[in-house]
């Protein structure tokens, strides 16, 4: 029997008291799924005795992972010495809001970090496992304008990055899926198609 997952994204910066209240209210209002950033303390063992964690397990809440997690896959700390990994705007590299997805080094680092984070959180997620890999909120179309990337729309650049993570996930868990946002109404001019383990999420404004 399939269950419809009514999701709530948990703020990584929220404190324990805020989580206790938020999750209690979520349960009261029919929420059955919580989404934590892959770097959230929920996925760390020292967190297991917290009240909100007991609320989760006592109410059989589904656990998913991800959100606006691209900074985990390509940390901004790399910008100082490897600015070519990041997006170009008006001829200058920028550390904020996405990166340069046509740079093979960028893709290699994203794949490596996807492997690290997916492996770290898989065991605490509810099968079938669902990840979310969303563009930066408010900057969905802020992508790279370097000569190589200009051939691709922002939506296509985003999909190149998400496909990279999807390839890694497929090797770890064939049943797992990544939810992504299809924010480009135009057909894929370059023929870039989402991998088979990608699923369209809700419209951007709902996330």
Please characterize this protein's 3D structure.
- This protein is of the alpha/beta class.
- The model is unreliable at 203-207 (pLDDT under 50).
- It has helices spanning 16-28, 51-58, 70-73, 104-121, 154-172; strands at residues 7-9, 33-36, 62-67, 88-89, 92-93, 130-133, 177-180, 198-200.
- Helix 1 runs parallel beside helix 2 (51-58) and helix 4 (104-121) packs across helix 5.
- The strands form two sheets. It has a six-stranded parallel β-sheet with strand order 1-2-3-6-7-8. It has a two-stranded antiparallel ribbon with strand order 4-5.
- The chain starts with 6 loop residues before the first strand and ends in a 7-residue tail after the last strand.
Quickly describe the structure.
The protein has helices spanning 16-28, 51-58, 70-73, 104-121, 154-172, and strands spanning 7-9, 33-36, 62-67, 88-89, 92-93, 130-133, 177-180, 198-200.
What attributes does this structure have?
single chain, 207 residues, alpha/beta, 6-stranded parallel sheet, 8 strands, disordered C terminus
Please give the alpha-carbon distance between the first and last residues. Answer: 26 Å
The percent of residues in helical segments reads 25-40%
How are the strands of the largest sheet arranged?
Answer: 1-2-3-6-7-8
Strand count, sense and barrel status of the largest sheet are: 6 strands, parallel
Helices and strands: which structural class? alpha/beta
Low-confidence spans: pLDDT under 50, at least 5 residues?
A: 203-207
Shape: globular
Question: How many strands in all?
Answer: 8
Order of helices and strands: EHEHEHEEHEHEE
| Gyration radius over CA | 18 Å
